[in-house]
Target: histidine kinase
Amino acid sequence: MSQPLVLLVATPSPGRTLQALALESQGWRVQQEDSVARLAEPRERPDVLVLEGGLPLNGEALATQGLATVVLASSVERERLKQRGVQASFLDWPASLGEVVEGVRAVLPPGKKELQEGPPPITVLIADDDPLSRKLLQLHLTPFRFEVVTAPNGQAALELARRRRPKVVIADVLMPGLDGFRLCLALRKDPRLANVPVLLTHVGAPDELDLRMAQNVGANGFVRRTQEGEEVLGALLRALHSEGPAAAPLDQGLLCEEHLHGMVRRLERQVGLLARAERSARESEERYRLVVAGSYDGVWDWDLRHDTLWCSPRLLELLGRRTEDFPGTYDAFIAWVHPEDRTRVEAAMVAHLEEGTPYDVSVRLRHADGSYHACVSRGQAMRDEHGRPVRMAGIINDVTEQLRLFRETQEAVRTRDEFLSVAAHELRTPLTALRLRLQGVNAAMQADTPTSPERISQALGSADRQVQRLTGLVDTLLDVSQLQSHAPLLQLEQVDLAAVVREAVARSELEASRAGCRLVMSPMPSTLGRWDPVRLAQVVRHLLANAMKFGPGKPVEVTLEARVDAAVLKVRDHGIGIEPERLDTLFQRFERAVPVRHYGGLGLGLYRVRRIVEAHGGAVTVDSVLGEGATFHVSLPREGPAVANTRI
Model:
């Protein structure tokens, strides 16, 4: 049975080349292609398909092939491919070389896996005096299943190499005694080990002097050792593929001692540079933390490679949540999005990551108390050298309060427009009647037939009533304008409220007769208090007018209760009543209990009542049953207001 065939489909790049070398190091055959079109060609059928998630893929076409498939994709690409029907083993992108090897090994057909049994074909010798560095490199090599042997110094590594004859040697350049340079030179002098590839490593990046020294001793390369280990693994795979160079000619003009001395001097300079860079980084980080902490906006940072999401304390505070309760994942955050917004937000995120469309969306986020806050989320993706998104960061603004103010402003504008329309109608009605009366009088005066004085007197009386109505409307508008900015001015004196009520009822008899209402007054005891009689008369007349307006043809009952410290006035009608949901806002400016098209008025009467009563230190309330009428209760302390806005 032949070795497994792996088809690697990815964009041409050094990364794809290294992935191919990693797969070939396991004894597998590898073919590299730029697209999945290779599957339709009549060649040898691969055992495993390795795909780069960013390529255009057809899920149905892949499903019909029935191939074991490994896809390297970010979390967003993974969801997109699953929706298109791609059935595969997914690896987070970018995946390490070891993860790619393990991913392919996991999906190999059973018959092909048997070929992988047996002794490791490749022996790797690691020479490093730092046990942590040795262990870390061993972990990086674990997925490849090489035979790894280690030595704590150069001399032990040389002896071990002579016994085991490794395929490749990885040596640290700064080992005590026999350092990496001398070890490489010793290996090149041994005819049996002269062509064994040797890779020199160090935590710092090599400069021109390092590379020249490595070339002089016959090393295959000088590689910077990182925690991820990808640079060392890449150099190792390339060295295995080249099967080692011939021994390099030695340049005796540069001694190892001179090189090491120069390296120490460079390390001292690098330590100073690193200290300054670290100090600058700390200062930059501190400035960043101050900006984030002082911002009213919430900040988020999403690492697509590791699928971790960081939220600033301010963002969590906006949502009423604690830092320790947030698991730091994209899925946990997207769960806070309102279900109706989730599809739209995720579509905007995918469009930004795949097509670069600006990410600026409105979204409702769930607060810890269960309510939803209106927010605006903006973000920008950061991409690698291939243009693929690796990170995305942005801000979230809570606009709940701004949205509330905007809606209140819209409602205020609507109310204003409605009020102006009603006010124009209310003012135009008496003006029209006044004009008609005056035109009638004028016509009568110019007529040849003499007009009786009684007829002229009636016309002028009607005109006078319209003028009084206009005066009342104008006074109401002026009064409300003043009441909006400050409490009404009061002329306080010792007053009998019963006398004020009886006089107000008497003045309303004519209006009541026109409305077909009968004003019913209960016996009223003398009720003395420190009040403004003019303002209280306005209160009584407003309540009576309101009762007659909404209960025409029905009686209106007026009662006065004298208590020890307060007087309670009640005005009850038997009209249409008030809906329960309108009771709380009934005494506000421009508020109405009924539609304006059915009942006239400016919607200011009860507002004036409330402001006058509150200026006296009292309160006004209402009880109502829809269809059975309403009862208004006015409570006034006998001592008057504690602090009054009085007229002098």
